[in-house]
From TrEMBL:
Locations listed in the record: Cell membrane
Organism lineage: Bacteria, Pseudomonadati, Pseudomonadota, Alphaproteobacteria, Rhodobacterales
InterPro entries noted in UniProt: Brnchd-chn_aa_trnsp_permease
Family membership: Belongs to the AzlC family.
Name of the featured protein: Branched-chain amino acid transporter AzlC
Cellular component terms (Gene Ontology): plasma membrane
Organism in which the protein naturally occurs: Sulfitobacter donghicola DSW-25 = KCTC 12864 = JCM 14565
Transmembrane portions of the chain: 20-40, 46-65, 72-96, 137-160, 167-185, 191-224
């Protein structure tokens, strides 16, 4: 972790994830604003971001809390939205699973959509990177993201309802995820999963407690897996 190459990869991680700064600031500010509108105070809002550190799950929980949904449904829905983190962890294990326990624990806490997307893309691009270099790059990739997430959550909570609607901070949510998933459409399985998830999400929009998103996510994963199996069988026959 102290070698010249590790430091170089850390700096490269910062550079590669820097474009996300453009959306993480309004994204986190919006969460702070909405959290205070939902009845949380500034300390509770900041603690929410520090403990959970998962934007999509946090927004899901807030929306359900505002709808007076039972606590069990809030927890289940938030956990379901955050299940992608388990898949992220499984995907990262071959790359940084041999790192010391404290480094793996730190990376686990700091695994967010942006650090995962940037990290995996780099690890696949340079398979000969050492484990310390991968850890350094991963931590570099999250360095511009997490402090800003905390900081502007706090700013949004302080501003609360003083933020005018004309700022349209809610644009950051879809743009953030579009910026992350667009480069990941590398195979037919990825495209199939995305298209099925979108279609099912639209059809299930009326399902109570926003459970339609969970249904759509499961349908998308199943479609992607089946497409990949079909492609593998097709390749084996040729």
């Amino acid at each position: 972790m102290t070698s010249t190459s590790s430091k170089s990869y850390y700096r490269q991680g910062i550079i590669d994830s820097s474009p996300f700064i453009l959306v993480i600031i309004p994204f986190s500010t919006l969460f702070g604003v909405l959290a205070t509108e939902a009845g949380l105070n500034v300390i509770q809002t900041l603690a929410f971001s520090i403990v959970v550190i998962a934007g999509a799950a946090q927004f899901t929980a807030l929306q359900l809390m505002q709808e007076d949904v039972p606590t069990v449904i809030v927890l289940v829905s938030s956990l379901a939205v955050n299940l992608r983190m388990a898949m992220y962890s499984a995907s990262l294990t071959p790359y940084i699973g041999a790192a010391p326990l404290w480094q793996r624990a730190l990376c686990a806490y700091l695994t967010v959509d942006q650090s995962y997307v940037v990290g995996v893309a780099k690890f696949e691009e340079e398979p000969k990177m050492s484990v310390p270099e991968r850890v350094s790059y991963f931590l570099g990739a999250v360095t511009p993201i997490v402090p800003l997430w905390y900081g502007f959550t706090f700013v949004g909570a302080l501003l609360g309802t003083q933020v005018p609607e004309s700022w349209a901070l809610d644009f950051a949510l879809p743009i953030t995820f579009l910026a992350m998933i667009a480069p990941m459409f590398r195979t037919a399985a990825h495209v199939a999963a995305a298209l099925v998830a979108v279609a099912v999400a639209l059809l299930a929009a009326g399902v109570p407690y926003s459970l339609g998103l969970i249904i759509a996510g499961i349908a998308g994963m199943m479609a992607g897996a089946q497409t990949e199996l079909w492609l593998e069988k097709k390749a084996a026959r040729t």
